[in-house]
Specification:
- The chain is of the alpha+beta class and about 325 residues long.
- It is about 30% helix and about 40% strand.
- It is built from 8 helices and 19 strands.
- Strands 4-3-2-1-7-6-5 form a 7-stranded antiparallel beta sheet, covered by helices on one side.
- A hairpin with a 2-residue loop joins strand 9 and strand 10.
Length: about 325
């Protein structure tokens, strides 16, 4: 839908009166310009104005919406949420969609955030979708413990992160029960799938999965001294991806989480910053996954499959 409003971006010297603003699935369009959701840090309404803070530090202020304010805010939140969900590569079946309170822990460069917003349960994950860049997809296969305490559901991860969601009214109990049930089911399915991976190639001795539903996609890993080589099996052209790290346990957890987070969209892990900037959806994904950011920071290049592949691989693993 197209709205008429005033738009100000002080840092850019932009002051538009009664301009036409269109809310689209990838961002806002105004005159000759646009604001891509990938560039948005957070959105907040205040005194019948909407403030959109960008990662570059600029803030866009939308005002003078009049009676269209509520409709504008509702549509913006809906489309921003849908784009965010797309950046989390959610392809599994949605089981519940609730409005709930949430509390997101500090994670890497993402600060702690609490509020109220959309919380969704999928067959393999819980997704929290605030109107900010801090949305998360919590993989149920890596949960350590899920418990309901009164009206609040506590989700603890094996790496120590602690998420809470709750106060969903009559949906609270069903959400918690289904969440606990799906976590158990997903872990069981992944365990059986891992047992079914018999394709091993020296020196790759560790194995892992992408999404639980992707039954024919998996990866193998070979470790050296503070380094790791990862081979992806996704039915596409092959290459071996190289990483260096300080702590093997932390790296292994983050490797598994990053692979599960991106599914078969493997290129997000190795694209350089220039290429990443050309793919707004991938930039959104990187902002929303600490595991992906961690893995990208550990990148040490890749080895294309040629006649010298084996020699280069062993040279890397031996340091």
């Amino acid at each position: 839908m197209i709205y008429k409003a005033d738009l100000d971006i002080e840092a850019k010297g932009l002051h538009l009166k009664e301009t036409r603003i269109s809310i689209e699935k990838e961002g806002l369009v105004y005159g000759q310009g646009r604001i891509d959701y990938a560039d948005v840090a957070y959105i907040r309404p205040k005194n019948h104005r909407i403030y959109i803070t960008l990662f570059n530090g600029h803030t866009a202020e939308i005002s003078m919406l009049g009676f269209s304010f509520d409709g504008f805010w509702e549509e913006l939140g809906k489309l921003f949420g849908e784009r965010t969900a797309a950046s989390l590569f959610i392809e599994e079946e949605k089981m519940m969609d609730c409005e709930a309170e949430y509390d997101l822990p500090e994670n890497g460069t993402s600060p702690r955030e609490a509020g109220r917003g959309r919380v969704q349960l999928y067959t393999d994950a819980v997704c929290i979708l605030p109107v900010s860049s801090h949305a998360v997809r919590i993989p149920l296969c890596y949960t350590e413990d899920i418990t309901l305490d009164g009206y609040i559901l506590h989700i603890r991860m094996r790496t120590g992160e602690h998420y809470t969601v709750g106060r969903m009214g009559y949906d609270t109990q069903p959400f918690a029960e289904r969440c606990i049930q799906q976590a158990k089911k997903t872990k069981g399915e992944r365990e059986q799938m891992l047992k079914g991976i018999v394709h091993t190639v020296e020196p790759f001795r560790e194995k892992g999965l992408f999404r639980t539903a992707e039954k024919d996609a998996y990866w193998l890993a070979a470790y050296g001294e503070n380094c790791c080589a990862v081979e992806l099996f996704t039915g596409e052209s092959a290459a071996t991806y190289l990483y260096r790290f300080d702590d093997r346990r932390i790296f292994t957890f983050r490797l598994e989480e990053a692979m599960e987070a991106v599914g078969i969209h493997r290129e997000i892990i190795f694209l350089d910053e220039g290429e990443l900037n050309e793919k707004p959806l991938y930039r959104m994904a990187v902002h929303r996954s600490e595991a992906v950011r961690f893995l990208r920071s550990c990148s040490a290049g890749r080895i294309i499959h040629t006649s010298s592949h084996g020699e280069k691989l062993m040279e890397f693993l031996k340091g």
